[in-house]
């Protein structure tokens, strides 16, 4: 079950998790990733079509979920990594002040990239 917390509370929680040598993921809405330069699901589908045509053709439906499911985990990382490495959050284009004050977070054993 997700928890809604203010940004400073999330920062404190992440520091505690890191100090305990554990991993966590901070899940936020698409508005943050888009303004950071990470494509929407449709953009990733198009990139899969261009870079991994065989896998794209195998997908029964040309949706993000179906296309990503056709990629091996290493190919998924290869697809996503350049976007994550170049990503920059532009706080000036954030949808609203309340959007960045409250984020959803969850502790987990593996980092997760999620769109919702």
Explain what this protein looks like in three dimensions.
There is one protein chain. By secondary structure, the protein is α+β, with helices and mostly antiparallel strands. The chain has one domain. Helices cover 53% and strands 12% of the residues. It has helices at residues 7-19, 30-35, 41-51, 53-58, 64-70, 73-86, 97-101; strands at 3-6, 24-27, 102-107. A three-stranded antiparallel sheet has the order 1-3-2. It is elongated and about 45 Å long. The model is unreliable at 91-116 (pLDDT under 50).
Brief characterization of the structure:
The chain is of the alpha+beta class. The chain has one domain (3-99). Helix content is 53%, strand content 12%.
Give me some keywords for this one.
single chain, 116 residues, alpha+beta, three-stranded antiparallel beta sheet, 3 strands
Strand percentage lies at 5-15%
Q: N-to-C terminal Cα separation, in Å?
A: 15 Å
Tell me the radius of gyration: 16 Å
Order of helices and strands: EHEHHHHHHE
Q: What count of helical segments does DSSP give?
A: 7
Tell how many strands the DSSP assignment holds: 3
Query: What is the helix content?
Result: 40-55%
User: What is the arithmetic mean of pLDDT?
Assistant: 75
What general form does the structure show?
A: elongated
Biggest sheet: strand arrangement: 1-3-2
Question: Which structural class do you get from the secondary structure elements?
Answer: alpha+beta
Low-confidence stretches: 91-116
Task: Characterize the main sheet.
Answer: 3 strands, antiparallel
Count of domain modules: 1
């Amino acid at each position: 079950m997700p928890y809604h917390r203010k940004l400073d509370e999330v920062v404190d929680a992440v520091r505690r998790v890191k100090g305990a040598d554990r991993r966590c993921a901070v899940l936020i809405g698409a508005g943050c990733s888009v303004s950071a330069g990470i494509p929407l699901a449709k953009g990733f589908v198009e990139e899969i079509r261009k870079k991994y045509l065989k896998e794209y053709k195998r997908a029964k439906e040309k949706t993000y979920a179906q296309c990503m499911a056709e990629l091996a985990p290493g190919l998924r990382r290869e697809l996503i990594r350049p976007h994550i490495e170049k990503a920059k959050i532009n706080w000036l284009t954030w949808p609203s002040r309340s959007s960045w004050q409250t984020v959803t977070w969850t502790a987990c054993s593996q980092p997760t990239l999620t769109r919702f």
